[in-house]
Amino acid sequence: MQPSIAIVNDLSGFGRCSLTVSLPIISAMGVSCGVMPTAILSNQTEYPDYSILDFTPYMNDYLSKWKKLNFKFDGIYTGFLGSSTQISIIKNMINDFSFKKIIVDPVMGDHGTIYDSYTDELCKGMLELVCHSTIATPNLTELCILTGRKYRKDISEDEIKDMCMELSEKGAGQIVVTGLEKDDFLGNAIYDNDRFEIIYNKKVLPLRPGTGDVFASIIAGNSILGIDLHESVVQAMDFICTCLERSSELDIPVNDGVCFEEFMYMLHRK
Known about the structure:
Layout: E1 4-12, H1 19-28, E2 32-41, E3 52-54, H2 56-68, E4 75-78, H3 84-97, E5 101-104, E6 109-110, E7 113-114, H4 120-130, E8 135-136, H5 140-147, H6 157-169, E9 174-182, E10 185-192, E11 195-202, H7 211-225, H8 229-249
Parallel strand pairs: 1-2, 1-4, 4-5, 5-8, 8-9
Antiparallel strand pairs: 2-3, 6-7, 9-10, 10-11
Helix pairs in contact: 1-7, 2-3, 3-4, 5-6, 7-8
């Protein structure tokens, strides 16, 4: 049967991020997608103005129809979750659907700053969700939040490994720490059963919103397909670098995200 995944994330009508990135990318990888939005936005939030509809009041009824119709998925991939209520809904969803793979991108903050919507209760709930994951993809800021550490730009590789080990001991599976900057390079750390490595690639400027969604989507799709995590991370990094270079060539506005459309062939598997 065709592999399948349920994607839970916000939907931005303009600006390549979240569901507008995940759905085409994972579909191009040959994985069937079911989608549940957590919020619906006119455009992504880096623009100076946007509208937002909180989808929380509709999520339980939405899922009840999925259950009634006996929809099946091999895994789930979660992104932005805006409240502890939504996290509770996802926990119930995990119990109800018996996913084999649980990929959690704990969208909580970046560049040392936690998002305004994140309360202590919400951070605790996200930690619990991460500790149920088979793969988690925090950036360095989110890794610090999840482990109660103070964010610093100069956090050492040993400290990153220690934080990953702490999450692993609490129940998290494989961990990929994204967006590690080192001079002219950008890296991603992999922690897998006490094995730790950081893979670096060239940094392509300007950095753009939505690249984290592209990265996590490729990791999620490959997880469902049973692809080795190291191979998956390398593929995601190469794909993003190619797309960033093309975005600069076309002079795409930064807030419009990364143009990935013409490179979808790089994600196809024979």
